[in-house]
Amino acid sequence: MKDETEKIFCIGFHKTGTTSLAAALEQLRYKVKHGNKPQSDQIETALQHGKLALSIVQAQLGEFDAWADLYAVRRHYAVLDQQYPNARFILTVRDSEQWIESCKRQRERRADSPYFHYWYYQTEDQWAVEKMTHEWLVRSYFAERSNKLLVMNITEGDG
Known about the structure:
By secondary structure, the chain is of the alpha/beta class.
């Protein structure tokens, strides 16, 4: 049985199995908020105003147990760790070459999507560096508290 005060934050990059993770969490009866730019923007706004990160979203939509594929969650994992001390974090990872190819396909399919606007102004090498840097920073941040972080490569069979 899940603790009602506990949150799960998926802090991996898009196209690293976040949709599969969200579906798995839903099967485990977690209420999941997955990949929505307006909610990600609301998290950014709350933090800019010194509020709890999830306060605006929860005031509008109610409580969620798990948060996946939101750039604000990925970007502010350290703040979320401080604001929600019972939270657990899942870093989804994927081979960089496979990840880049998947990102390129999605960008081509959804050329007008506001979700990928940022990625149009970077090279594939820049994408890879940003992803690898993020993964290294997350692992370093949680190195002394490995019980708070689960690293999963869903595309390679982690389940």
